[in-house]
Amino acid sequence: MDNNISTQLKDIKPLIEIPDSSYYLYWGFIIFGTLLLLSTIFFIAKRLWDNRKANLAKGYLIKLKEIDWRDTKKSAYQATYYARLLATDERREKLFEQLELMLEQYKYKKEVEEVDEDTRNHFNLFVRIADESI
């Protein structure tokens, strides 16, 4: 009988190692989820930032449209300030440079006369161009 048990025991195989990659899968899922979350946050923040810029530009345009030209000196400073903020592309930059030269004569003097028609027309052209591009 003893011999029978010994032959049976020789038939038992040693334990084999089963490959376990659950540790790597766990950390892989954690890293993938973190990257996915960070990229989602990035794109949402980028979209909000772009909308904020557009809203700021719309606010500057509203301020330009609300300028009261009765106080010439103050109006020239306001027009220059807000137009500079809106001059973000090449076309508006060129128009702004021309407008700034025209408005300069109304800024640095103690007493200034009314804004001439040419300056007002150039200002209105800048506002129209800025309104189209926003």
Give a written overview of the molecule.
With 134 residues, the chain is mainly α. It has a domain at 55-133. Helices cover 75% and strands 0% of the residues. The protein contains 5 helices and no strands. Helix 4 (90-104) runs antiparallel to helix 5. The chain starts with a helix and ends with a helix. The mean pLDDT is 89.
Q: What would the keywords be for this entry?
A:
75% helix; mainly alpha; 0% strand; 134 residues; rod-shaped
Secondary-structure element sequence?
HHHHH
Largest sheet: none
Average pLDDT over all residues: 89
Inertia-based shape: rod-shaped
Helix content: over 70%
Beta strands, count: 0
- The oligomeric state is single chain
- State the helix count: 5
Strand percentage lies at: under 5%
Task: Please tell me how large the radius of gyration is.
Answer: 36 Å
> How far apart are the first and last residues' alpha carbons, in Å?
97 Å
Low-confidence regions: none
Structural class: mainly alpha
Secondary structure layout plus pairing:
Elements: H1 2-10, H2 22-65, H3 72-86, H4 90-104, H5 117-133
Helix pairs in contact: 2-3, 3-4, 4-5
Give a short synopsis of this structure:
The protein has helices at residues 2-10, 22-65, 72-86, 90-104, 117-133. It is an all-alpha fold and 134 residues long.
